[in-house]
User: Fold Zinc transporter 10-like from Dioscorea cayennensis subsp. rotundata.
Amino acid sequence: MDRFFSRATHTLIEVVSESMAGTRCGIGDEGKETEECRNDVVALRLKCVAIVLILLAGAVGVAIPLIGSHHRMIRADGKPFALAKALAAGVILATGFVHMLHDAEEAFENPCVPRVPWREFPFAGFVAMLAALGTLVVDFVATQWYARKAEVEEPEEEEVEGIRVPLVAEGGEKMHIVGMRAHAAAHRHSNGNEIEDDGESSRHARHAVVSQILELGIVSHSVIIGLSLGVSQSPCTIRPLIAALSFHQFFEGFALGGCISQANFGKIHVMLMAFFFAITTPLGVGIGAGIASSYNANSPRALVLEGLLDSISAGILIYMALVDLIANDFLNRSMKYNVHLQVTSYACLFLGACSMSALAIWA
Assistant:
């Protein structure tokens, strides 16, 4: 029995070692076509253009909902914002299903990758599933943590009917904030106004968690796509990627900015999240350009790592798009009682998904 386990362990180590080899694999027809279009000087110029354009597209996309959240046309509770967010949700969903998951499958199915274990099992879908389930757990735990934190950090006074009301009684005993809110809600209800939702802190907690997990999923695959463009020395490959990735970053930035604007973060926190998103893909392009001469994109190691990271990103983005963006927005009360908003939102959702899917032709 000991000999069996020893042999099995040795075989497993050999398989993993072989699959993570850094040696270059043979170049197929597609690789030969890329070599024929190779021009290092032109490729470097295009990469500089790509860094600027992708940076601007991402920065503008994430900034629009953040800057315009207090304006009538694009505020977070307005119809234009809801339609734009539905469009962006479609873009993110297509990014996960059509781009990331497909790229992961291609990486694992590459002939350069050893058949055992990577091509004997659907690792792309399996890892994406685990990433989605892991995101569910993180989503739940983080939401509970934010909600408890918000309850503990309630202010010592609250605005009720336009008046700042202290929550500390004369004897120093703290009044229960839920009671104050219930009294205010009952007063507004008696005047015919809408009752305030007691779960305001829970909604802010959800938005905070959604924005941060969404940024994690977006940033993880932004590094991959930026690196892929940066290591390429073929202008034929880089030119369509610049337009595709600029479009990609703009709408992903818009979706992320919308989530951040609803989370009520502090200004520094918002600026850091927006900056980190905008800079990630250009940074990946820059790193790729710097290591282009030594980086071996066709090695088993690079392909396996690419497949794993793309699968993880796909699982995160698919979960976030379906659960926290689409389901959350399309099943809420404002959508339920507004048929026109339903129709236009679905149209924007499908438009965003189909438009991002069409980019798969070039990227």
Remarks:
- The chain is about 75% helix and 0% strand.
